[in-house]
Amino acid sequence: MTDSSRAARGLAAFMAGMGAAHLIVPRPFDALVPSRLPGRARFWTFASGASELVCAAAIAHPRTRKKGALATAWLFAAVFPANLKMARDWRTRSLPLRAVAYGRLPLQVPLVAWALRVAREAD
Hints:
There is one protein chain. This protein has 123 residues and is mainly alpha-helical. The protein has helices at 3-24, 27-30, 41-60, 65-78, 80-89, 95-121. The protein has one domain. The protein is globular. This is Cytoplasmic membrane protein FsxA. Keywords: Membrane, Transmembrane, Transmembrane helix.
């Protein structure tokens, strides 16, 4: 297995796992939905979970890998406001929980880079 294939499989698995988590255990994700979004938080939780599953499927198939990886990079950037909300909401929690909330913020950068690498190597 090549490094590019391994990166694509890993990204597809990561997205599938996160998408499934949004659908199976939605409550923690509901709390991350910014209140400025219209409608109910559960709608956005399910919509993001479904989007993650669609991205995972697209990345898994070589013909759609590039578009799926680019959509994944966009999705990672689009959910950044939820990470900001989590950091703001958790600023008074215990130190370990604050570390998780704040640690998620810079994590978006390598996630976007991973998706862009998979897209670049899909050519």
